[in-house]
Amino acid sequence: MPVPDRILIVLTFWSLAFMPSLILSAREHHSEIPEKTPLSESEFRSQYAHAMKKFKDAYRNIECRAECQSLFDDPNDPSTKKRYDFSAHVLAKGKSIVAEQNYAAETPLGGIYSNEIVCATPDYAFELDKTRPGNPYLLTSVTHISTEHLRTRLRIIMGHYKDTYLYAAGSLDGCLFEEIIQKPSFSVTKLERVPPQKEEAEQLVALDFKVTEDPWAISSGHIVFAPDRNWAVLEFQYRCDYSDTDYSTYIGRNTYASTQKHEIPVPDKCEHEQTHYHADMLPISETFSAKLSSISFGTVDDSVFRLSNYGLPDTPLTAPRPATNNLMQWFLIGNGLLLALIVLWVGLQRFRSSRFLEGQSADVR
């Protein structure tokens, strides 16, 4: 048999011998690749609502510390470009929260103070500051929550510190996604699972949405969730349209430890970037980053929400007498005076009438 024919027979034999194993190996490798299973909006809403309930139950009493950095850049006024480094200690229990910020350098208010405390409860809110680290705290404002306007202020105070630090896993730069998704004009434009890009990576879920007729002016956005981390937010971007020429864009990223000690994830690092666009102006940008540490549950005491915890008397926290009582008092006083004037007027009229009648009788005589 010629040599070429022998080589051909040998190659054919080995191909037939190893082809089944190659096909089997390819099938096994293909089976290891996770399939991109569809995810319906109703399924997502159900799972996310369950995750948020679990999230809130775990966060009833929590505190953390953070090392933060903030940069403001307005190219329209280069003198306003500043960087601020500060540490933060945030404590929350129930519906109350207090945040202490210690600035390493000049503060956003032009270096007026070096330390700031902001506290908000359902009954009152107060702010403290000190000009130098060694000085005592000074009370700068006290607000008693009694009107819708003041309740909105409370919400802003709580949202800023709670959602930026403690609730970062469920918020978009201070806006809880749980509240955004409940808006009547909210709609999902795209929802899909994202397969892992490498071995041992977790499967993610990406969602695109839009919102119309929103008082917050949020118009559209994109979020990436980690379902295996109680649907924690990994990254997001959204846009707020205020007018045809004025709008803002928000971008954020949360980094989590590979091995979370807590069942409900808390980011190791949060990074936010805002860019504001206005007609006939260069874009104004703000960046913020925070490295979280010393996270603990069940350690917050009620005393941290009182002025006495910071060396001041608690007297200003006592709610003033309701304004309705004062109004009622003035109303009763006014009615009393009016009644007295009516009685006096009637008496005068009777007196004049009697004098008139006496005069007429005298004339007749």
Write up what this structure looks like.
The protein is of the alpha+beta class and 365 residues long. Strand 4 and strand 5 form a beta hairpin. The protein has helices at 3-32, 41-58, 148-166, 177-180, 323-364; strands at residues 61-73, 82-93, 96-103, 115-120, 124-130, 138-144, 171-172, 175-176, 186-194, 204-211, 218-226, 232-241, 247-255, 269-277, 284-297. The relative contact order is 0.12. Residues 7-14, 16-20 and 22-34 have low confidence and may be disordered. The chain has a 13-stranded antiparallel β-sheet, covered by helices on one side. A two-stranded antiparallel sheet has the order 7-8. The N and C termini lie far apart (173 Å).
Q: Shape from CA axes?
A: extended
Mean pLDDT: 77
| Rg for CA atoms | 34 Å
Number of E strands: 15
Main sheet strand line-up: 6-5-4-3-2-1-15-14-13-12-11-10-9
The helix/strand class is alpha+beta
Any chance you could write out the topology, listing elements then pairs?
Layout: H1 3-32, H2 41-58, E1 61-73, E2 82-93, E3 96-103, E4 115-120, E5 124-130, E6 138-144, H3 148-166, E7 171-172, E8 175-176, H4 177-180, E9 186-194, E10 204-211, E11 218-226, E12 232-241, E13 247-255, E14 269-277, E15 284-297, H5 323-364
Antiparallel strand pairs: 1-2, 1-15, 2-3, 3-4, 4-5, 5-6, 7-8, 9-10, 10-11, 11-12, 12-13, 13-14, 14-15
What does this entry show, briefly?
This protein is α+β, with helices and mostly antiparallel strands. It contains 5 helices and 15 strands. The model is unreliable at 7-14, 16-20 and 22-34 (pLDDT under 50).
